[in-house]
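Hi V.,

Quick status before I head out on leave. The structure for the redesign project is tokenized and pasted below; the design run finished overnight.
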């Protein structure tokens, strides 16, 4: 029987292969999540991209499965310099509902660094991640900083995708502000 990593290694290298199937396997048997995390660190870029995609699919359905791995996400995984990994880290971090204030500040610093990435996809995801992480109670100063970045990117972002994401985050921040004043 093939392992999760065997499944992730199959298929055209330009696709996500069997990542949806692997995510379903992990959702059915959560103890397999360790093997999925191992896939993120392999040298094979296709397997790494598929593993992080599968992990994001798992987290979208059962974010609580990520909680035991938050330290690993904030350290080892978040430091991998591959655009696909960084894109998905930005999607995963806001799903970690039980971040301490210290962990949240570390995540904000880390993701702010992603704004210097070469990939416009990473920059757009990082901008959204900053907004979502700073929405937590007690992070008004970070939310204000994120709003400044969002406004800057909406007006002068270097790609249409970044400007569009920034405009979406402007609407999200306005909704948050309306909710806070109610």
């Amino acid at each position: 029987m093939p392992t999760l990593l065997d499944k992730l290694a199959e298929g055209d290298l330009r696709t996500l292969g069997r990542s949806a199937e692997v995510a379903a396997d992990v959702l059915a048997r959560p103890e397999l999540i360790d093997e999925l995390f191992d896939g993120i660190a392999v040298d094979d870029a296709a397997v790494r991209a598929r593993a992080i995609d599968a992990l994001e699919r798992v987290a979208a359905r059962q974010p609580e499965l990520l909680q035991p791995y938050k330290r690993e996400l904030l350290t080892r995984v978040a430091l991998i310099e591959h655009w696909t990994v960084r894109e998905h880290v930005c999607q995963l971090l806001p799903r970690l509902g039980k971040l301490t204030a210290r962990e949240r500040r570390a995540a904000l610093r880390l993701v702010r660094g992603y704004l210097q990435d070469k990939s416009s996809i990473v920059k757009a995801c990082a901008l959204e991640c900053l907004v979502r992480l700073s929405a937590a109670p007690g992070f008004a100063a970070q939310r204000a900083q994120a709003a400044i970045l969002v406004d800057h990117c909406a007006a002068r972002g270097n790609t249409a995708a970044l400007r569009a994401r920034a405009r979406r985050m402007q609407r999200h921040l306005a909704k948050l502000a309306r909710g806070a004043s109610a």
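Above is the designed sequence. DSSP finds ten helices and no strands in the chain.

G. will cover questions while I'm gone.

Best,
W.
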